[in-house]
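User: Hey, my collaborator sent me this sequence without any context and asked if I could get a structure. I don't really work with proteins. Can you help?
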Amino acid sequence: MKRSIIYKLAAAFVAVTFTIGCSRSLGDAAETSQSYPPIYPDYPDCTIPVNIAPLNFRVRGVDGIKSDFKIDGNVILSVSGKKGLIDIPMKEWRKMLETAQGQKIEVEVSTWSNMHPNGIKYKPFDIFVSPDSIDAYVSYRLIEPGYETWKKMGIYQRELCSFAEKAIVENDVNDSGCLNCHSYRNYSPSTMMFHARGKGGGTVMYKDGKLKKINLATTGPKKQGVYPMWHPAGRYIAFSSNDTHQTFFGRKGNPIEVYDISSDLIIYDTETDSVITDPRFSETSRWETFPAWSPDGKYLYFCSADSCGMPLGRKDLHYDLLRVGFDASTGRMGETVDTIRSSALEGGSVSFPRISPDGKYLMYTLAENATFPIWHKEADLEVIRLSDNEIIDASLINSPECESYHSWSSSGRWVIFSSRRLDGRYTRLFIAHMDKDGEFGKPFLLPQSDPEHNMLRMKSYNIPELMRGEVKIEKSKLKDLFNDK
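Assistant: No problem. I've predicted the 3D structure and written it out in structure-token form, which is a compact way to encode the shape of the chain:
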């Protein structure tokens, strides 16, 4: 009883403080609507982390706008704005989320426009605030959504509790070459790697403040490393070695097909600077790609398909999902190869397998065919429960457009993924909650200070990777690394 009274008094005090601090001059709207407000981005009914940046939003085509944020019927925060923009103060937003964790925030929006000069109040919608926090940062590559050319690209990091974005590395350090395929050991910002293609290129290792560049194409079996994943124990990195090409199509359908004409598995030993191969995963009759370690490091998952003539045979190319045991003491793979998902039995083609940190779930991208689903409109995310290999319902996080790259949070409660659902052209980042029972919440677009930023930025987000903190690599050291040919 006493706790209830104290909570209500505290909520009332917070409500008064926030409202006075943030409200402007807009009063009550004269009209009411039984429809939800047409806000962008689509935040209604989403589940969000307790530490996420403010969900700023806009109603297009109006001037004045006001939004009341309520908990248990009490107005906790009131924000007004012009040109349809709700720009939520950071400090007040964070206080509200702390108060609301484990509860719903009711959002009531009113707008003023030429059509409704006296204002119209819309039906309120809910946002659920999960007490599950998300990792502090996400990193991604930004690049134009085409493969013909580029001028500037880089790998960037974004603080998720704010709107701050910084470059980890940009291609002005390597003569405007390509930068791609970053990977971290156990979400650590102090142990990462990425590829730099072109003049003076190589695979860049960053560990405990030290930089190192290696050329896998001149090491051991002389195979180029492409798609990487760092072993949880830190000594090894698994790569696929792919000979990748692309074809452009002018007819209706997927405009681009990115494909391999060969691909094998290799493992790089960071302690001995050597490359380990297995003849089973280097033969030409099968193609292996997209390696992914289990959280305990005892299994290596990967995609594999029978080789075929490409690109004409792309519709007959279907990748299975396999796994093989791994002995970290020797760097060798086990004898038994398990089939987790068979394309012959279940259809489709698998890419980008990722296992949740608790080892319970495996998420991958499923397309109709081929190996690189980025331009496959039909591509969706699918999730297997590894205890019984049953597919769980992931329909809530998919859309009619392509879903592709994805990664789990270190807690296993969140997934972040790339989707073209906004316009069919650019990939943007969406975040979705998964509860302890394996059920997903409605995903939400990565918040931006200006809600239109995602639409106005003419770049695609590739390979989102969550990290526990900020990567701090000095640009001068990167330049020295590439100047030392």
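In plain terms: The chain has five helices and 34 strands. You can pass these tokens on to your collaborator as they are.
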